[in-house]
Amino acid sequence: MDRRSAAAPAVTWAGGAGAEVMTIGELSRRCGVPVRALRRYADLGLIYSAGRSAANYRLFGEPALWCVQVITGLRALGLTVAEISQLADIYLRAPGEPIGPHLAGRLRDARARLDERLGGLQELRRRIGDFEAAHAAELAGDGFRAQDPLSRPAGG
Predict the structure, then answer these.
(1) Nearest 5 degrees, angle CA 145-CA 148-CA 149?
(2) pLDDT tens-place string over residues 110-151
(3) Per DSSP, what are the bridge partners of residue 153?
(4) Do residues 27 and 49 touch, judged by C-beta distance below 8 A?
(5) Are strands 59-60 and 22-23 parallel, antiparallel or unpaired?
(6) Tell me: the pLDDT tens digits for 16-44?
(7) Which conformational region is residue 15 in: left (phi greater than 0), alpha (psi within -120 to 50 degrees), or beta?
(8) N or C, which end of the chain has less CB nearby within 10 Å?
(9) Handedness of CA 104, 106, 110, 111 (dihedral sign)
């Protein structure tokens, strides 16, 4: 993972003789992730890099596909890019340290955010139900038009 910050270790995939590399556009096509997102991930050092071409294009090898798969999997579980970046930093800085407990903590954080969102959605559902109950007559007919000051007959 080619880390951009000076404090983070740089990991560049060297590949072997004849190892195939791909541009960011090719990586995008192969993994179905937009180029813009891949650039962001690469800038954060979340994707193993194969360096740059003579024309300064970003180059990636097969290991980049694994990185993108991990990122998209963690995003699908509700982790933020910042949380994934923190996990990647730990993963690279402490290769002998199990990453699982750190991931478990981030998953707990994601679950807490989800529970908060669900609570808000349940409250909204309750307010909709209360509104429907309080305005059943208007919802069944044209009661709202009668309340509109511009829809009332002149002189009324």
Answers:
(1) 140
(2) 999 999 999 999 999 999 999 999 999 888 887 777 778 887
(3) none
(4) no
(5) antiparallel
(6) 555 789 999 999 999 999 999 999 999 99
(7) left
(8) C
(9) positive
